[in-house]
Amino acid sequence: MGKSKVLVVGGTGYMGKRIVKASLAQGHETYVLQRPEIGLDIDKLQMLLSFKKQGAHLVEASFSDHRSLVDAIKQVDVVVCTMSGVHFRSHNILLQLKLVEAIKEAGNIKRFLPSEFGMDPARMGYALEPGRVTFDEKMAVRKAIEEANIPFTYISANCFAGYFAGNLSQMGTLIPPRDKVHIYGDGNAKVIFVDEDDVATYTIKTIDDPRTLNKTLYLRPPENVLSQRELIGKWEKLIGKELEKTSISEKDFLSSIKGLGYAEQVGVGHFYHVFYEGCLTNFEVGEEAEEASELYPEVTYTSMDEYLKIYLQN
Ligand SMILES: NC(=O)c1ccc[n+]([C@@H]2O[C@H](COP(=O)([O-])OP(=O)(O)OC[C@H]3O[C@@H](n4cnc5c(N)ncnc54)[C@H](OP(=O)(O)O)[C@@H]3O)[C@@H](O)[C@H]2O)c1
């Protein structure tokens, strides 16, 4: 059996461009949705053209034109969607319901991977307002997929390193502090950090794998299951200096939500579940799901010691 043809929806996005790259690298015939709505966005267009140069096919379709989506989907076997889902950038998770409708009508898709790539929404039914919107909307998409009997894989990628490791998990910055750092509670809850390129590699590995059919794939690279203190320790070793640490109590962290804008409130809720509750690691993967580094030991993933080096000054 040949390798599946893949359509990437959201291909010019933060995660999407990595999925396109991984799909091409793993030898899949790769199609990328080109939306007419990008209009004069020269950066998006140039990125799409660069995908084409690397061997991808661009396929025009719009979320406002059901028929165009169906026609695009009919050209491939697998759809990977990386629709936006970070509130301070853009959040359109529910738009995927239109994609689900089109996949249902096309009737040829062997696997659909919706835009997930974070905490497992099925485990976040109790999450705080307003951050729970992310999980509720991802669950609404799952419900539509499963009701339509579309074969799926859900990727639970945990914390993208660019958002959570590079800044030592500090909110409001993407670069690591050099003097002072905030610690969430005792800083010992285990968190999982994953290089975004590795997320893409594992995601594409899974699409033709019968072991992940209709399952959740958790990304838990063993060396990257770290507490915030352990992550900070790696940075301190790299810069040869101990940072001044201030612990934020659970109560103070939660009350900081008052007066923040909506996007920040969503962020505080997510950080709370990850860093105070340890929601990424307080369960076993179990029989019903799979773990990526176990299924694909051939993937050499990036450790956080290595990842943090890029933030060192020359
Ligand atoms: N675990 C983590 O730490 C973490 C961190 C960040 C994101 N995530 C998750 O990763 C997924 C992707 O997020 P991202 O940050 O990569 O997204 P993004 O870069 O903000 O956006 C991805 C793509 O969404 C498409 N899009 C946005 N608005 C649209 C609209 N109105 N109509 C049609 N398409 C639209 C665009 O596709 P085009 O290319 O067609 O323009 C865009 O490039 C989300 O599910 C998010 O929750 C997880």
From TrEMBL:
Single GO molecular function: oxidoreductase activity
Keyword Hydrolase: no
SUPFAM superfamilies the UniProt entry points to: NAD(P)-binding Rossmann-fold domains
Transmembrane region(s): none
Superkingdom of source: Eukaryota
Annotated signal peptide: none
UniProt-recorded name of the protein: Isoflavone reductase-like
Organism: Quillaja saponaria
